[in-house]
Amino acid sequence: VPHDHLSTTFAALADPTRRAILARLTSGEASVNELAEPFDMSLPAISKHLKVLERAGLISRGRDAQRRPRRLEAERLKEIAQWLGTYREFWEASFDRLETHLQAMKKEEEKKHGRKRKQ
Amino acid sequence: MDARGSSDRQLVVDAVGEREIVMTRIVAAPRHLVFDAWTKPEHVARWLLGPGGSTMPTCRIDLRVGGAWRYILHGPNGMKMGMKGVYREISPPDRLVFTESLDDGADDSEKGATPMYPGESINTITLVERAGMTTMTLHSLYPSREIRDAALHSGMETGVAISFDRLEAILGGAGSLP
Prior knowledge:
By secondary structure, chain A is mainly alpha-helical. Chain A has helices spanning 6-13, 16-25, 32-36, 43-55, 74-84, 87-118; strands spanning 59-61, 70-72. In chain A, a hairpin with an 8-residue loop joins β1 (59-61) and β2. In chain B, 17% of the residues lie in helices and 38% in strands. Chain B has an eight-stranded antiparallel sheet.
């Protein structure tokens, strides 16, 4: 994922309607009409959301020229997801590493104090 | 909640009120070391990296009230994420208050990068030591409910990271924690 596109992806994912659309697409491709169904929203409004998702590389269009079904670009999501994890995973992994680093800091401090006492 | 690790040491993440997230975690170290780990670049760059094999080549800290901090995480495939803010209160060894906002990390400076969301959060870290263990509490106040929820539901801060395997679960449960 080129980094200059990453903020587009962030922005695309920040909206609850777009997250709901992505969730729907995890169970298979769907036409614009099918995607619009659960929402109290006009087709143009839904199309706008789809455009944002498409620009972010999160969805693409299927082959069927009549239905123009949208489908999830799983690889893109996976790539981003695995990098930072969820909020919880990000902090959990970071704090686990902090814990390890703190043990090294403790040892370092003990060494210094030990040296001072000897002087 | 999963059963990994001992229950008292586990990370606790709570959505509080409209715009807040509170996290607590206990670590086996005195608080003055924990304070250093949060405020010295040689330490921060070693641990604040998340799960995905990132490095932090940019880690600048001007530890004064009004002083700026700037971190940029570099991930695989050229992915970057920037974090930045300004210190508001520095009270070692037990309290630190700073602003935080996220950007695309495209620019090393504090000003050039594209922000992920408007505004900034105000973060307060409180450290309480007991018998050589430190309880860290991180309180984050976000600019809006939407940004707070995006942070919680769709991944790190701005909603960058949806764990694909659990996409449906995370995305489906609006109003609940991941």
